[in-house]
Write a structure and sequence with these properties.
Elements: E1 11-15, E2 22-26, E3 39-46, E4 51-59, H1 65-82
Antiparallel strand pairs: 1-2, 3-4
Length: 86
């Protein structure tokens, strides 16, 4: 995902003491890459036994995050149905 503070350039303009004196520095948020990794963590939790059944981290590509999240959820539910030890 493109970094919002620097607009994907990896550099930010900051004032160097005076309003007209701008300096380009490496973006703090994305560390100069221009991209930020966004991760969706999906966890199936057994509320009665207070334990995790399964979990998955999915790095999201914002071209279709809903499809990626839905696919992760389907995989976890399928895993839980196949391994009914909870």
């Amino acid at each position: 995902m493109k970094c919002n503070p620097c607009g994907g350039t990896g550099k930010e303009k900051v004032t160097n003491g005076e309003p007209d004196n701008l300096e380009e520095v490496k973006c703090i948020e994305c560390k100069g890459t221009g991209e930020r990794n966004i991760v969706l963590t999906v966890t199936l939790w057994d509320e009665d036994n207070e334990r995790e059944i399964a979990a998955e981290n999915v790095s999201l590509d914002f071209s279709d995050p809903i499809l990626e999240g839905t696919s992760a959820l389907r995989r976890l539910v399928k895993y839980a149905e196949e391994n009914k030890e909870y």
